[in-house]
Amino acid sequence: MKAITRFAPSPTGYIHIGNVRSAIYPYLLARQTNGKFILRIEDTDRERFVEGATDLILDTLKWLGIDWNEGPIVGGTHGPYFQSERKELYLEWAKKLIASGRAYADPTPKEQIDAYRNECNSKKVPFLYRNFRPTNPPAWQPGLPLRFKAEPKDYSWHDEVMGDMHAGPETQDDIIIIKQDGFPTYNFAHIVDDAEMGVTHVMRGVEYLSSTPNYLALYEALGLQMPYFVSLPHILTPTGNKKLGKRDGAKSVTEYRDDGILPEAMLNYLACLGWNDGSEQEIYTKDELISKFSLDRIQSSGARYDETKLLWLNGQWIRRLFTEQGVDTLYDRTVGFWPDSAASASPEYQKQVLSIIYDRLKTLSDLKTMTDYFFRDPEINLDLLINNKFLKKLSEAELESLLKVTVSKLSTLNSWDADSLQNTLNQLLSETGKKPAELFSLIRLSVSFAPFSPALNLTLETLGKESTIFRLNAVARAI
Ligand code: GLU
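Predict the joint structure of the above. Result:
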């Protein structure tokens, strides 16, 4: 079966990782079945509307490599794809409900409704508006809210993730379908749109599960066919105590991009947050996700967000890009992530640095902190040297003489390549009688003054003879 799925975000702010997964799963299902993936912007809540939020959503999806068959920019036969431009259509469907006696205009002022609610609260009974339904509602006209007239009953339905569901009459109420401002509510608009757009699988957050009986009643009253329901469990905070939301620091997806996360890693991570194919595999390309995705392996309980795992996966993806597609491909992704000092370096030199450091990167922004010394002489910090755990035992005189011996040995080296450097470093070890941890820490720190560096021979090879000797001499003089 070709699945027609959709992602229907509301442009109420940035799109964070807690909600972008509701785009990924429908996308994977549509692509797997050669169906269609539709993007629809649900912008009928004018009070929560945020200017620019739609662009952020489009940007995020594009960055993740999620393309849509119908929707903003690409268009399609079921447009427009902004709900605010479909008002007439919702009215047409609403009028069908008025005609069949299943919708009524509600002139009740808000204060009165609040009073009903308070009355129920004080009696400790659930507030159901249908118990206060006006007896003689006026004919509907724009400016009046329009309510669905519930005919409460038992419902049983199947949710592809949550299983067989049952709900009693108490779950159904006279919900508003057209608001006073003429815009439809989400509850009504999404049903009309999903039907008009031929959506076969409604995949969305589990928070809509409790409203499903109201939706089932609407499908029936409108004579519409039920789609498959796929409720996606929440993404939880790292401690697992609640749904991950903006208030818990859920970052926008584009912030991760700016922090140097690769889209491949993000897609991989989010797809596997609450889904697995039953194997031990952890790294999936987009194509693998498309072929292996299945609704029946979406877990029904919430999945905890774990940033350490995301960073690990990102590191794996950085290595994978380098080893499978080469340094040029990875280099293209690093634009904007280099330290300022790299600005005047040639792309060739940057690529050389990247080739020896890529397997230590967790994010592309690590380049900023991990490669600065390749592009400019580091500031000499003798404290760092003297207090180093391997160098602490050596006197300053010893440190100075070790540096001098190293300089004179390296100065005689004619071919400055990784193998010759390794041989020379080994000779220095036996000549000085020092342990590798001592001698190599001293050289490494003296040329970098950084907590990490790639293998010493590779670091020196990349820095070049002149720079290496200059830096070692400068430290020897400073001690
Ligand atoms: N506009 C709704 C939201 O952003 C979409 C829910 C749905 O996918 O139906 O939560």
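The domain at 4-82+236-304 is CATH 3.40.50.620 (Rossmann fold).
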